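Please describe the entry underneath.
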Amino acid sequence: MKKRVLAPAAAVAALIGVCAAVAATAASWSGAQANLNKYKAVPAFVAPGPAFNAKAKAGGKTIFVIPASSQIPFVSTIANNITRIGKMANVKTTVWQNQGQPSQWVQGMNAAIAQKASAIVLLAGNDPASLQPQIKAAKAKGIPTIVAHLYDLKQKSAPNVGAVVNIPYNIAGRLIADQAIVATKGKATALVVTINQVKSTIPMVAGIKSEFASYCKGCKLQFTDVTIADVATKIQPNVQAALTANPNLNYVICLYDSAEAPFAEAAIRAAGRTGKVKISTFNGTPDIMKEVKKGDIVSADVAENLEWIGYAIVDQSMRVMGGLKPVADEHVPVRLFDKSNIAQAGSSFTSGWGKSYVSGYKKLWGIK
């Protein structure tokens, strides 16, 4: 009789143990889920600084934009937005076309100085630390250099920089990590694709590691790195090799969506791992947002509003060109898009942000 009683009791005890383990695992990544939920809402515009008469301060002046690479859709889209938005205040824009080679950035700086630009914008990856001779030469001619979309809010900029437009990279890194953690229910074995040449990689990777340490203690991370110039040739073979070497990989974390995700996705398909390996990424480029809607590989994109970034860069540029004090923070937000809210991004995948920033900046600039 005792054996008959003990056997069910042992089974119940075992079941309780399993349930407790499941509950503990769920509790460990519940914080990651809470973070994701927090950033799914439409962000509100926050004025970065005092209002000013944009046309009076900056009208007729020229912003010279040097993208990190004109071949990356995310970067070229922002450059196009700067050109369009600047026209509202009669500000001219010159965009220096290049293929991500540092020597081409030097040529662009020299061209900006020769053309007597009013301000130079280093956009989305070119490191001002390696351009100090040119930045100093521009400064000597009264041309400020603005570094946009490179530094996190807490990062210190390189010397001789006139102003920055910061991005919440650490938060973005935390969120793309949270997505991998939640999607695998706290059992992620993830490959992180980095571009260590870009300064923003540092706070993003710090954010990723922090979230895994907090919410996914049994999870595993490995890394593969490429340069800006090699994104189109090195990412796919690197990711495919990692997938072949480690059949347990179930997530690829791409720091920069249009620069990395298409090649990582191609690697997953080539390796026959569609449905088994997902991607989370950052930037919000429309082509990658389409993949979020499709849902077979890219599960989420921590998006930026590329138009909002354009407004922020033009705002900071006009303040500096007009002799005003640059603002410390343009308050550029991010928003998480996944299958639950991707429909709000609209057919062009650029909606879902409201229009508070458009009216907000125009009001700051005295433009109707």
